[in-house]
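S.,

Sequence below, as promised.
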Amino acid sequence: MFAIDSLPWLAAGALAAAVVRALAGWGMDLVAARGAVKVKAQLRSAALDALDARSPEATAGSSEAKLATVLGRGLDALDGYFSGYVPQFILAVVATPILVATVLFSDLLSGITVLLVFPVIPLFMILIGLATQSVQGKQWDQLQRLSASFLDVVEGLPTLKIFRREQRQAARIARETDEYRSRTMKVLRVTFLSGFVLDLAGTFSIALVAVTVGTRLVAGDFPLALGLFVLLVLPEVFVPIRQVGAAFHDSTEGLAASEDVFALIEGNGSTGDGAAEPAAGTRASDVAAGSAVGLSVADARIERDGRVVAGPVTFDVRRGEFVALAGPSGAGKSTLLAAALGFVEPAGGAVTAVGPIAWAGQQPGLIQGTLLANIALGSDNPDPALARSVLDRVGLHDLALDRELGALGSGLSGGQSQRVSIARALYRAADVSATLLLLDEPSSALDSDSESLVIEAARAEALAGRAVLVVSHRQALLDAAERIITIAPATQPSVAEDSGGSPATLEPATASAAAEPSGSDQEVRP
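The prediction came back faster than expected:
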């Protein structure tokens, strides 16, 4: 027994221990929270860098809602893992052996009992954890489907209102929401059940040891002070492992989301890997800078998912030429432009673009900001005079360079947006002295007067010494081109016209027949 005069020191020691424990807990929470913020920032930055470095074609099939959910809600859900589960797991690994050893050396029988009953809790944790991961994964998938459905409805709301189908989509969103609610309740049921099971297992384990200690105390075979010490330490043995189980359930949503995050970073997810090298075929750029050829397509064949979507096709676009690329929808015209830009790699043959490239796609791709920022996108030092000049060339005299555009360039009509996109390509062509100018359906949303301005701009770029290739279905653009290259769908024989206008069927060429123009009909305009 302790002397009475030692009680103040014992009380002071207990108080100091309580303060140290509180400070240690506060410090652990602080470090864990800061670590979680830092890790999330690093993961988000790495994922965004991976998306930025990847080809636009690689992410074309991915849902924007899924990407936003993964990089937003998904990464935020990792708070529970890094600030809860990881610190508790470290604490359990460090503290539990020390506490078990303390009980073992204090009372051998109690220590052996603890060693026998302790594995029951981790066993239950593993079994319940597997069930939790399963239901949490389904809930995460449902959340992504709900996000994608909501985005689709918002984007298509004007069309839905026109055809009076908005109520049907509202009902679909309601069904998706109810399904998400149902899956959330399943996760909560599993979580509450797991907490009950872990607490029950811990309570039974403590009770089993306490009964043996109490029996020996009654029999007089065990000192009271040692018995009280064992009974006080015993609950602390099971606390860390039980808190690990509780923290794991709080982190399951983040763990489910982390799989998609790492898939984005490593390029193994549905977004594909834009950095992968092709098994066959090549694309070259900035080669033979003095060459008269701006774009060379030599027996190029583009494949997606093992299916040929373009080619094999061979043609050249020389500097100073205004060439039109024609053909039915699905023939692979835009895909060939994507290959020239390096967005996709040819599975066979070669696509060679010489020097810098200026390009305007089918979608304007405008951003929130001033008109000048949109036109000079990518330029370190925007030139207002050059921006004003290219805007005037496409007939946008009345648009001020400081005009603010909304999200996705809202505030302009479809035709204006398309002409701003073309102006951006003309700006880049002048800014970087581009050798090649690529325009994909540049007049699809334009009237005849605006289209004539685009034609004049394309001609002027060709006269400036650039190779100009325009993909179009519009007859006015085809008539204005010096030469027309017509390609057929890859699954059909290509049709070529000779000088007399009589059709002749050409089978797709093989590599051994690369000397002949394959998969294309080249018609030269005088």
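The CA atoms of residues 280 and 397 lie 48 Å apart.

Coffee later?
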